[in-house]
Amino acid sequence: MKLWVLRHGEAVPHGSRPHDSERELTDNGRKEVLKVAAELVGQPLTGIYASPYLRAQQTAQLVREALGFEPEIRTVEWLTPDTEPDKVAEQMVAVSNVLLVSHNPLVGNLLSYLQHGAGHLPERISTAGLAELESNELLVGSMRLNGIKHP
């Protein structure tokens, strides 16, 4: 199975909107996302899951459109920034070949957790950074990081 984890593109700074969840992608953020979306062309993607935050929704929609991916984006509360990685892993047990669109600190923590288990430093990932993990099954601490593409 493969799992792709995408951090949202660059967003407007904190303070420009009343709530963090309402921050939008910048023009540069949209360009970043489209650049890394190209990495997913031809991959066996079966679903796109995204945080309900606006910038993650915009990121997921840009990827969906760029790939011509027909299924709807699945908006889930367990991809918000402060979710614990084990909560995400619980949700991923029955799925494979999906894209998760989320935020730091969750993205960095999740990548580290899936590769090494609990208690390791988070993986460093920029905005619109796309990580690809692979394993025969989702087993915490044993997934292989095939690489991280930065825009």
TrEMBL record:
<dbReference type="InterPro" id="IPR013078">
    <property type="entry name" value="His_Pase_superF_clade-1"/>
</dbReference>
<dbReference type="InterPro" id="IPR029033">
    <property type="entry name" value="His_PPase_superfam"/>
</dbReference>
<protein>
    <submittedName>
        <fullName>Phosphohistidine phosphatase SixA</fullName>
    </submittedName>
</protein>
<dbReference type="Pfam" id="PF00300">
    <property type="entry name" value="His_Phos_1"/>
</dbReference>
<dbReference type="InterPro" id="IPR004449">
    <property type="entry name" value="SixA"/>
</dbReference>
